[in-house]
Amino acid sequence: MSLYQDYLSEIETRKTQGLSPKPIDDGALLDEVIAHIEDRDSAHRAACLDFFIYNTLPGTTSAAGVKARFLKKIILGEADVPEITRAFAFELLSHMKGGPSVAVLLDLALGKQADIARDAAEVLKTQVFLYEADTDRLKDAYAVGNPVAEDILRSYADAEFFTSLPEVEDEIEVVTYIAAEGDISTDLLSPGNQAHSRSDRELHGKCMISEEAQKEIEALKLQHPGKRVMLIAEKGTMGVGSSRMSGVNNVALWTGKPASPYVPFVNYAPVVAGTNGISPIFLTTVGVTGGIGVDLRNWVKKLDENGKPILGNDGNPILEQKYSVATGTVLRIDTRKKRLLSEDGTTELADLSDSFTPQKMEFMKAGSSYAIVFGKMLQTFACETLGVPLKSAFAPAREISHEGQGLTAVEKIFNANARGNTPGKPLHAGSDVRVKVNIVGSQDTTGLMTSQELEAMAATVISPSVDGAFQSGCHTASVWDLKAQANTPRLMAFMHKFGLITARDPKGVYHPMTDVIHKVLNDITVDDWAIIIGGDSHTRMSKGVAFGADSGTVALALATGEATMPIPESVKVTFKGTMAAHMDFRDVVHATQAQMLAQHGDNVFQGRVIEVHIGTLLADQAFTFTDWTAEMKAKASICISNDETLIESLQIAKSRIQGMIDAGMDNDVQMLAGLIEIADRRIAQIRSGEKPALRPDDNAQYFAEVVVDLDQIAEPMIADPDVSNPDPSRRYTHDTIRPISYYGAQKKVDLGFVGSCMVHKGDIKIVAQMLRNLEAAHGEVAFKAPLVVAAPTYNIIDELKAEGDWAILQKYCGFEFDDAAPKTKARTEYDNILYLERPGCNLCMGNQEKAEKGDTVLATSTRLFQGRVVADSETKKGESLLGSTPVVVLSAILGRTPTLEEYKSAVEGIDLTKFAPPVQKPMDSLSVHF
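The chain above was modelled as a monomer; its predicted structure follows.
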């Protein structure tokens, strides 16, 4: 059967699902489509014309190459398709956005037919996704006096590709739709269990919120023609968690505007809002699509006569409504005065200055943030080629510099990596900076979208300025089902060809490494001055500064080696006191959140960088803190480390990178070997005193400071989703931190989970040590609830095997993963045994493995979102409580939360993850293990 016949069969199948024909990305299929178009007698000709014009993906897909070349033949008169005139062919090329279409346009513009060259030049003047191969052709043609090349370059120098675009409307009318009360996780917009469909935009769009919500949104659009639907998190923050790009894509699909009539299911310009604004990473993604993010502030704390919040019976501040945004409310956005107004425009409801900065207005005008990035590079290239002064058409970058003020750690990193800023001018928080990106990570459930973004921006190879880049396989590691088998090899092949280190070898030479992406990135980050961009909210390294990002920003970092963002404000976190012997460092992490709220009332971490002075803790354990900062709603975090501790962490990183090399994972340019060289240079700099470990200046200024008192941490802490809180906005947040005594040993635990990116080698050793202790005390170990253990990386398992810890785990497990025969079905029921699962995200991701509906899960994970780890049953809400490894293990053995006395007895003599605040002079690490 031909590819086209297969395509028709697929179309019939999709019809039964209420879906349109899938957009074509395969060049071989499009060749067959074109054959039907050229056959005037073909019964399929009309359908194939429609597929060719309206249903072929642009960019660098193989189909885009075939389409561009056929359009070139039509323009040159070498092919006759009456329905596609020369002018229409040029219009279609203009919507293909780079790659083969630009190559074809350059062929025509620099060709010998003057009328065709003129028309091609006019189209090229609207394009921005040009790469070195394209600009070199223009440069060479200009050098030999080609007038068309000069005309194009002068247009680029004037940035006509941007200045000729229509301005953002002065006023935008919106109609509200409340998606939910409380923080809205991106899981509501793009559920993790539907991750396999994210690259099929129409199919994935059907999973946003609910079918009922989709119908309500469509009804609002019919009732309010000309108005844009604004999706709202009432009494909460919009877009916390991961899955940003797919979440924004879904919102844009249902509420945005089509990007092109010739590109199906790609929409832009969504409008999203939250009572407490938008999660920082989600807001960046909104900018990628030229959308609007609104901080409503429509609920405020009720204050007493002294200006202090009035607390309710639950101890939380009472909120009162400033204005209503109930579903169906019509509001006006004044983009010039930057105000949210009532329907009649007479009442100002909120200041939207932060939503309409000059830079964000440019994103809206251009339709995406990375169109602006490429536009700036293109204008600079043209001016340099022509030898004319650069008169930027874009808003000047804010350069905020306070004379005499020192730099925080993040300010130092941004200044060191800045590009295009005023030389010698120190930049402080709030400055807009283009920065070099050192490390980039792409994860597997968003990776196909990243590859689509790379194709859309016509990128074919990783930027040579990127030191290291990794494509993970961890989010789909648990179950090698048909979806994973279809998507993962395709993703790995694309990313391998693009230049990344891939978790799976497309040729099947090395063993599949399903290691958790954050742990790998933490190992391959070998410079504390590095900037890391990763396609996951938990891209939070304990070396350098890392930012979780959407798949578009990841693609941009891979293609250009750059990112653009304001320098964030910082909150300084220091420690005092002594950590009790029975406590684990995870409890320090929980206590930081609790003590911060107690000290400041509000979450001062939200949207800012947490600069944690953790000094004596090795990178593996420190990562437990930085990883958690995503749940604190921080933008990023930085660990301030002592010199000797940093050197030891870099040595560990080197050994793990060498392990990847030994496994055969290095690529043709020996990227991994290059990272070891960078680590060696950094160690030499520290030892010589040439460049000590990163530290802020003593006179740096912070938004706030938090001092964590270790003496106050007397018992293990649990982050509780508080699923029955009468205030919906208080449910499923990470702000409810409770001591285990709160539960009075009465909280039934249905399943324990030790895994995800929050655990390190020491956590798995703790499990082994607890089993030994219980065996010695009782002669056997019996579980009253299932315990799932998933080590984050294979190298941890290898080290545990060498040290004898894996054997005790194997002795008591009722299931051990087998890479030779991976699971092909997700587990839906659990026995009261120990499960040793494959390295990867496992339950934390929620897209494959899941707890039984309605379970109470106690996990070392980070996710307590509704429905993520555990869904609700018909009779009980699922709960995902978060605690330390020893608490989780003991709770699975007991089938309930322990008493403090039971806990102390169980951990006696066990090497928990210890921490002591750093002293003034550098000292050796106090970490017990790594």
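The first helix runs from residue 3 to 16.
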